[in-house]
Amino acid sequence: MAVFARSWSLFRSALAVLGAEKAFMLYPLLAGLGILLFSALILGGGGWLVLSHPELEQLLSQLEQPSQDGDAPWWAYAAGALLLWLFLLVTSFITHFFLTALVGGTLERLRGGNPSLDYGLALARQRAGVILGYSAIAATVGLALSFLRGRDQQPGIGFLLASLGGFAWGVATFLVIPVLAAKDIGPIAAIKESVGLLKRTWGEQLSVNVGLGLIIGLPMLLLFAGTLTGGVWAAATEQPVLLIITLATGVTLIALLSLMSATLNAMIRGAVYVYAETGEVPGPFDGDLVRQAMRPGT
After folding, report:
1. How far apart are the first and last CA of the chain?
2. When you count CB atoms within 10 A of the terminal residue's CB, does the N or C end of the chain come out lower?
3. What is the pTM of this model?
4. Region for 23 from its dihedrals, namely left if φ exceeds 0, alpha if ψ lies in -120 to 50, beta otherwise
């Protein structure tokens, strides 16, 4: 309960900062729209290529059929891995670019400044090369974890290793984005800095993340259940207008909650970074709460 109480207080502190800088929510929104647009271009472009080139469709059909040894040619796996890596690289870059802009704006706000939307975007553009390098590393890790998960037809050792690897990667890179926003250093140095900061201030950070996840996750679950239940009931009673209103309202609220969650999570990381780096608690955040959040587990 103590962890949940601290998480709730950190959440409220971040919410107060967001109340003063509502434009911060535009960063995750732009990231989501960018990924959606890129995915649509990839899917649309791929569909157009297949439809306009029958020989390509035939080749794909052949690859789907097992060969004499029951396996696809090696180059098909290599091509698929390369395409997946490129997709992960671009989506990771888009995400990290706007997160860097968001955290950069948050750090400026915590320093007492009054950052505009352009401030964060300008900072992210200055760090674009480093963000791309970090995104390449993240894409490689993501590809490796995906490969481990895909090795087993059923959850087994590969799935377990991938889960542990993903957990460890998340812990190691928890403060990478704040480091990239605050310092002009390379991606590997940023990862090392993130690990070093967590080593020096290791504590209940993971538990606090669980608490924050519950704060957002429970309303998200209730919204999803309510939308599904209302939609099924409206469809069963043949009320198309109510069905449309229910689904539109539910999807909108879920999207807004997801957007707020992403924004607040990044802002809290910025506050934790300031304390981990300087030992000083940012003004809008409760000093005791941040210190307890980074204190060895109790």
Report:
1. 12
2. N
3. 0.77
4. alpha
